[in-house]
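User: I want to check something. If I give you two sequences, will you return the structure for each one separately, not as a complex?

Assistant: Yes, each is folded on its own. Here is the first sequence with its structure:
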Amino acid sequence: MKTLEEAELCFPQLRNSSCRKTMRPYSVSMILYIILSCISLLTVILNLLVIISISHFKQLHTPTNLLLLSLAVSDCFVGLLVVFQILLLDGCWYFGELTCVLYYIFDYVITSASIGTMVLISIDRFVAICYPLHYLSKATQQRTKICVSLCWMCAALCHCLILKDNLKQPGRYSSCAGECVVVLHHVAGSVDLFLSFVGPVTVIVVLYVRVFVVAVSQARAMRSDVTAFTLQGSVNATVKKSELKAATTLGVVIVVFLICLCPYFCATLTGQDVLLNSSSMAFVICLFYFNSLLNPLIYGLFYPWFRKSIKLIITFQILRSGSCDAQIM
């Protein structure tokens, strides 16, 4: 029978080098397990519905929806990563040092890909609202696929390079057995902070401020039946109400994303090195994860096509022949 001291260790057989478990009251632990399990399950299910909807129905194969598909894929992976957060509730990592590094690399790649997708969404709405006559020729499905692919590949390559020291010698920064930690040194952390946060967020804010200004002026023009002109004097097509609604919906997605994202990156500014297993980061990490659950809920609130596609999916009507050609929008 284990002694009390052995029960508090991650690896009782390694008494002199094992980390100690995070001890909580049983009721608190159960509540945390239930909440995180529900978040993980709902995040995966709801984002899978988005992925199936956009992938299956041909009418939804638009450049904007391809960007939403990329975001849903990253959000679905986030839901799966929450499972590891559940397993880490006792403060112990049981899956090996290399797996720990790969876990953090995967987490970083997903985060960067999500931010990159948000930048692409901002650019998409900027072109659609500010240059509507050129949107169809510039924002093609092929270009969108290339941009999304480059976004994911750059995110993977960048963070493999940033965390290469941790990959070469997994566990070099662990102080005891059962600890999962990777360290970004000052230069690498600064580069990552600029590429993953400062730069993208600046682009997003600038573009959406411009979109907001133009959308407001276009909405006023539609209400007063005034024809809008470009600076060059040529007639500019009035922005469709659907484009304005899409800009509003995606604006909500971006604002919620930034609210959930900013605390994490702001916390990284507090030290010279970015230590990722600090208990003080638990709340902001969970806040970022929770954002992945909110996105499909926002789609369900603002997009009728998403609600309709969910109905067809859960009733198994998508299994019928020719269901991919159904009128969703």
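And separately, the second sequence with its own structure:
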Amino acid sequence: MRSSAPLIDIHCHTAGIGAGSSGCFVSSAMRRNKRFRFFLKTFGVTEAELIDRGDELVLERLSQGLAESRHVTAAVVLAMDGVVNARGELDEAATEIYIPNSFLGQACHNYSNLLFGASINPYRRDALERLEQAAADGAVLMKWLPSIQGIDPADPRLKSFYRRLYELKLPLLTHTGNEESFTRADNSLADSLRLRSALDEGVTVIAAHCASNGKNEGQPNMERLLSLFAKYPNLFADFSSLTQVNRLGHLGKVLRHTRIHDRLLYGSDMPIINSFITSPWWHARHIPLLEVRRIASIRNPWDRDVELKMALGVTEEIMGNSGRIVGAGSPRPILPPPV
């Protein structure tokens, strides 16, 4: 793939257990779940390594993988705020995974190819102050997972948060469609139609995963998302996770809507691309066998992901959209730590 626009992955996860005083944590319920060890393995780390070297080791491994990629220039790494209680404070008992902005924002400055994606539950008592701090720390977007964080994007109380997002020119990357990676979820909160409040305030909204699975009010979530594009030029969608075995054919469905090709953004959903769940072999019905074999032999997970998605119909022009949205034309210089 050769394109004049940089290829930026706008949907990359990290992980942490609190090692190295990161402030991250994983709930005991999640740590007992088989997903916990699966995710550590796909990140290429072990729990023992994190305890020994700290949670920043995950970011180091992500940066190394990106440096070795032929296609992907940089990635937006996403923080993960938690559930908030009635007092507007973090509810640790109800939170399964927590990756604070304070840790991630600083750690990303140590790597020229990692961009900081902040996460703030807008129901926090000091949400606006946290938003200002995230912007000052170099955040390139805001990430929500409403069905897990208990956020209702249609809540009128969020208007001031949306207005400040718009003023700061920070896109809102928010999960749409059903969430299946946690032990519990309220998927009604990830209904695309709930995003109209943010869109009406002018916020650039990125619907993660193109709302490609699940239904709300009996209607497929993807249909509900597609109904919004004509009215809102500030609406975009990332096609991360659409090559997973449980989403076979979903990427093709999205690409058939050519009128939104300029609104589609590349995201990997790392570390999922580093697992059997996104193996090219699941797509052998749609890609020539020799091409499947070639793509499957690619060692770098980002390169394998890019080439699989292009084999399924994503164009170079579509791949270039994400770099323009996050304003990351080239890797940043490594910044010194604050005094």
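Because they were folded independently, the notes below concern the second chain alone. Confidence is low (pLDDT under 50) at residues 328-339. The chain has 15 helices and twelve strands.
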